[in-house]
Write a structure and sequence with these properties.
It is built from 15 helices and four strands. The chain is an all-alpha fold.
């Protein structure tokens, strides 16, 4: 089976759906182990109970925490890589239309989810005091007083990277030099320049542009994917090799950040191909649930992280980690439970929006008929 050539609706590549699934699971795992996070206006710093169950430091939970530390080194660059690959599937079109599309897709959720979900839920999760919450909201909308974008920083960072990236490609188009390798080289320069010389932090532009190099790498990958396939046997060997390397030399590789990211991206692509028969099986047998899950991947990203603080607060304040069952339930809720809750929230919001849209459509039709 040629996994990399399975295309739907002309431009949809199933390989990228599979990578999105893995990347989303990785980001949930990466956010599912922390007990301490400190920001300019809030944070948590939970201490494990003295009567902690041995299960918490047993093989399963310890292995999971190691996995969380590993995927955290590359899970966000992986999203930028994937965004670049998807961007390369079809012509970009006019710049104004592109900016309008990405504003609707990224900036509106960035603002609405922050104001109506992230800040209230994190407040309930003891992340903010009342005064800290007000300061965090002010800094969120002004860009001053500390960074309080939380996990939503990715949306604004991706927005900046996409806009600058498209501007670069448009300029190179006019110069007839728009080869993906040239674009990647320029984006690496932009990335390094932003780290060293861009000091203003309004809407995180100074830190956002670091990731443009990974977006450009994904764009280059898509141009190569069209010409080459990824053999299934090679994907298995690559996945096993990278896992073994990390198990044997994790302390050596981890400090080398870019190497860790590239290895993680390669691993994610290979793992997507390895798991492709499973994805196809689930799709064929449970098509409706599979399609809904793919549809809700963005919702999982939007809603999962604030829910983590609620889970931590409940389990630590109620001393539920003193038993083995409590430890297993804690692991379940911070991973699968969070995913299910995020999907449920996404479905509810979609249902409510459809009802509101339907109501306005009926009202508009009624007014038209009267007139």
């Amino acid at each position: 089976m040629n996994q990399t050539q399975t295309i739907k609706k002309n431009t949809r590549v199933e390989l990228y759906d599979w990578i999105r699934v893995i990347a989303t699971i990785f980001v949930v795992i990466g956010h599912a182990a922390y007990l301490k996070i400190v920001t300019a206006n809030g944070g948590i710093n939970y201490i494990l109970p003295s009567q902690l169950s041995p299960t918490y430091n047993g093989f399963l939970l310890s292995s999971f925490r190691f996995l969380a530390i590993w995927v955290y080194t590359f899970h966000m660059p992986l999203f930028f890589f994937l965004s670049g690959a998807v961007l390369g599937l079809k012509p970009i079109g006019q710049l104004f239309s592109f900016i309008k599309s990405k504003t609707h897709r990224l900036i509106i959720p960035y603002l609405l989810v922050a104001l109506f979900f992230m800040f209230p839920i994190k407040y309930l999760g003891n992340f903010y005091t009342y005064s800290g919450l007000s300061k965090a909201i002010i800094s969120f909308f002004t860009g001053f007083g500390g960074s309080d974008e939380g996990h939503l920083w990715f949306l604004i960072a991706l927005f900046w990277c996409l806009i600058i990236f498209v501007c670069i490609t448009k300029i190179l188009d006019k110069l007839h030099s728009n080869h993906p390798i040239i674009i990647l080289f320029i984006c690496i320069i932009v990335s390094q320049f932003s780290i060293r010389y861009i000091t203003f932090s309004f809407l995180q532009i100074s830190t956002s542009l670091y990731y443009i190099q990974w977006l450009a790498l994904g764009y280059l990958f898509e141009s190569c994917r069209r010409r080459y396939t990824i053999p299934y046997s090679y994907s298995i060997l690559i996945s096993i090799f990278i896992i073994l390397i990390y198990l044997l030399a994790y302390r050596i590789i981890s400090p080398h950040y870019n190497i860790s990211i590239i290895a993680g991206i390669i691993f994610s692509i290979a793992l997507s191909v390895v798991l492709s028969p499973l994805f196809q099986l689930i799709k064929n047998k449970y098509s409706m649930h599979y399609n809904n899950f793919i549809k809700r991947l963005f919702d999982i990203y939007l809603f999962h992280d604030p829910l983590e603080y609620i889970i931590i607060r409940i389990f630590l304040n109620k001393n539920l980690l003193s038993t083995s069952i409590g430890c297993y339930a804690y692991l379940f809720m911070r991973t699968i439970g969070i995913i299910l809750l995020s999907i449920m929230i996404g479905n509810i919001i979609e249902y409510v929006l459809k009802r509101i849209s339907s109501h306005f459509s009926k009202t508009k039709k009624l007014i038209t008929d009267i007139n």
